[in-house]
Amino acid sequence: MKSRFQLIIVILVIFSVAMTIFSASRQVKDSEWGHIWGTSFGDYGKYVQQTSDGGYIVMGDRHTRPQNSEIDGRDVWLIKLNEQGKVEWEQTFNNPGGKYNSFSNGQQTTDGGYIFTGGTSEKWSNSMIPWLVKTDASGEVVWERTYQTPECRIGYFVQQTLDYGYVLVTSTFSGSGEEIVMLKTDSQGELEWEKVFYELRGQAYC
Question: Which of 62-71, 83-92, 177-186 has the lowest average pLDDT?
Answer without folding.
Answer: 62-71
